[in-house]
Write the structure tokens for this entry.
Amino acid sequence: MTFSLRSRALAAIVSVCSIAVLATGCGTGNTGIDTSEASTNQMITANITEPSNGLLPGNTSDMSGWKIVSQLYDGLVTFDTKGNEELVQAKSITPNTDASGYTIKLKPSLKFSNGEKITASTYARSWSFAANAANGQVRASIFEDIKGYDDLQDANGDKNVQLSGLDVVDDSTLKVTLKEPNSAFAYKLGDIAFLPVPSQALKDPKTYGLKPVGNGPYKLKEWKSGEEIVLERDKNYKGPRKVKNAGIDFKVYQSLDAAYSDLLAGNLDTLDSIPTSALKTYRDEKNITAISKDGPSFSDLTIPQNLKHFQGKEGVLRRRAIAHALDRESIAKAIFDGTVTPAADFLAPVIKGYDPKLGADALSYNKGKAKKLWSQADAISPWDGTFRIAYSADGTDKEWVEAAANSLGNVLDIKAESYPFATSKELRSAIQDRTIGAAFKSGMSSDYPHPEGYLVQAYDSASADGKGLNNGDYKSARFDALINQAAKQTDLDKAIGIYQESEKVLIEDLPVIPLWYTNVTAACAKGVHVDYNYMGVPEYNTVTK
């Protein structure tokens, strides 16, 4: 979701089908809001940017796409407010003794909105399609644990080849054999890429992505590119999410400031993020209800490994210099009004394994260290050119990007500047195509509350080269080995210790520069009620007015 450029927008990005997991409300239970049957007949308006890709779960890598896909589908599991797993379409998920295999039992009578049955074969076909490199799905690497994944990584291969590690025992039973033990696999099933898709999606994915058929609480009614995406309540939905409105009209905005203006003017019901220009004032506005709460969002500055001057030892030195030259504390205060906290590791405070001491020294603002490291890099190859930080004009990054570029330019005595793209879709495409030629903001807000969701997805070698969310194409045999070792631990505490060791490798190499953890800042119009899931994302099915 992924809101980000790596997470499902931070990527990117979040719990795939958060069922009645309420963290807070935009409005409260004693506001007198009508939640009767009459309330369910009203359409709700919400903000969005144009999704980067079609609405296929395995090809969803930005928050806009995630917002829509997560309303159209139900999956096997979700997570409660404390990150504990809850079953949705799965009746049971049982690992074998060393977590190298899992048996998944489905609940009975599952169907898509078009009446097609959902069986174990549906899940096997859907996962194999997404994992097969010939189908070009950006979330393919999430399936790398499953036996047979490596055999499907020929972009020119047969698009119909299935993962050999998936065994359909009967309509309700799917056995999964992994390449190696992975105690986190049950958590990974909450990732959006593991959602089921109907048979028509596999026959013509491009056409299907424009008008998908799901199994969730809403159906796609209309998609006017650049204008709006309208979802209508599926009256035949039998799943666990209770829908309290007639549908969601997602309005496409070119800037968050424009969306915020519409909220203030009464033309928008709910806004999932506050523009930086309003962070100092939005809590004082009388005609909206403001939300500010802790969240799982990690943001970073990604510097592609193939950029000139950022390869090998020279690249490591320059990234370390940039980490010391960025005054993240001042940016957090001046631009974000304290709604972000400078990051100290590669996870987030709400994720088990978070360690605020891990990167304290490597990420401290220190002009002297920055200049010295930059000079050492110059001794290898003298710097030339301009350091650019890309951002999308329809997002909220302009102010901090310009502040960061100014900080780097002043400390390192180089030319540093912002590099705007008109839309997040264009920026996302440049990142995916590896044509960006600049640094850019990425982030993680994992679909499952486990360190693997942040570390493996973003930095494992198998997730590089367009096969996952490792958009800087960082590759480290040391890091990969530790990640693999952690995956074999069935004891969560022991696994966490090894994940922290892998983070120490990241601190040394700095494939990305950790920026900050972002609080959830959102708002809705007065008289509107919306609940939020454990990730701080709106539960759109709960919105009433």
